[in-house]
């Protein structure tokens, strides 16, 4: 028994979504805020600052070199704090997606608080790049049960937040499949899980070793080969502060070369994939 | 003390049993009850029956391997079609708790209740009463083994203390129970399972490198083969069933299949074989 083959544009065999969560220091600020004086811990914050300052230009250059589209999920606070890289992403034709205002954990918030964050951030996007985000990725952790309905009502086309599939699907709202599309990423395709590190406060929680570039590239390639084999939607979830290091960006380039050595791969933004899914499935 | 060589059927050099735990979201719910409010966390488990399982079943078919599936009663109730499909394809179904509960934290009465509930659900959905049991991740007690013997189970596959089957003998009238021991290093979860909040593993260790994990499984197989033991692998479709990892399973099966003097058997077949040896 084989899996029914999905249909992708122009007869492509599988879809690839390159996504970057431009969290900057918001993840560190959130992690530190329960520690006394945490808001003044400038060393861990600087790990995040590296992302917009150094990595984003490097990533944009790489995408230009291979003529690839990408989706950047950006907390609106980061957009306000780093207007130059944020606007540059839009100018280069990439998609900007919603990622909270301060990378808030939605599962802990009331509907009103969630709505406030959603709308406040959309206003900032509109002011800075002339349009609202159509895609949403829940910042670290889970979203609340009512979040997908709130996003759908707020006019979002898609989310890229869950872990339960390796292809898009229509999110079930009120017991029925809606036109709010989910494009799930997976932990095994997340660079942060492999490379994110700090000594104090500890990241990851148990301060495990940093994975080797070679092993992570090997995993990402083997997963791609599987997605290609079954014709699925490969969602690479990266963070500029992690993947944009001089050596890791070369690793990403090697991964892109590996993917491009396969014929019929559709590189697309989340928006393009969600539009296709709405139309086709 | 000599490492006594076991004489396997048809003079096979070693034995292999492939076991699959279909925990689905109940792994996460039993470890972190709060995840009932966490759709993303639950979705990791749902991937198992919804996506990974089909690929695992296909890999088993391709290599002609009959496996033993340990299934919590709640999984069977939530995914009855998937469980029937497993039965249809000829695999053994065994007991894995009802809600994937931690037996170490339950009174004897509660353990008895959970065993009965799981047994009844599996019997209702598959038409067969399970004869095997695996304690869900967590702990178990001596009473768990005694309850299993009282209920007429043939085997448990829960403990880690050996690399060959052995018999739990009880005092009094209670019938014996076979144990088919496991090893963490032959399980996919310690290498691959991951989540941030709730944190899994507890210290949020890295996801292991695929090539190195396959190498570890192959090296252990070489060791079990060399010493003539019983190699019991333990996989969960939510972990091994991703597009990239299913290839590891296929490569491991191909590696084992290179040798023709390996007895590939279900847990039940091994338990019956062990029990016969005991009665001689």
Give short descriptive properties of this protein:
heterodimer, A: 281 residues, alpha/beta, 5-stranded parallel beta sheet, 4-stranded mixed beta sheet, 9 strands, B: 280 residues, 11 helices, 44% helix, globular, NODB_dom (chain A), Polysaccharide deacetylase (chain A)
3D structure, described in words:
The complex is a heterodimer of chains A (281) and B (280). By secondary structure, chain A is of the alpha/beta class. In chain A, 45% of the residues lie in helices and 15% in strands. Chain A contains eleven helices and nine strands. In chain A, the strands form two sheets. In chain A, strands 1, 2, 3, 8 and 9 form a five-stranded parallel β-sheet that branches. In chain A, strands 4-5-7-6 form a four-stranded mixed β-sheet. In chain A, helix 1 runs antiparallel to helix 2 (42-66). Chain B is α/β, with parallel strands linked by helices and 280 residues long. Chain B starts with 13 loop residues before the first strand and ends with a helix. The mean pLDDT of chain B is 96. Chain A binds chain B through residues 1-3, 105, 107, 138, 140-145, 161-166, 184, 186-188, 193-194, 204-212, 215-216, 218-219, 222-227, 229-230, 232, and chain B through 37-44, 46-47, 50-51, 54-55, 57-58, 61, 192, 194-197, 199, 201-207, 209-212, 242-248. Chain B: Pfam families: Polysacc_deac_1. Chain B: InterPro entries: Glyco_hydro/deAcase_b/a-brl, NODB_dom, PgdA-like. Chain B: This is Polysaccharide deacetylase. Chain B: Residues 39-265 form the NodB homology domain. Chain A: Residues 41-268 form the NodB homology domain.
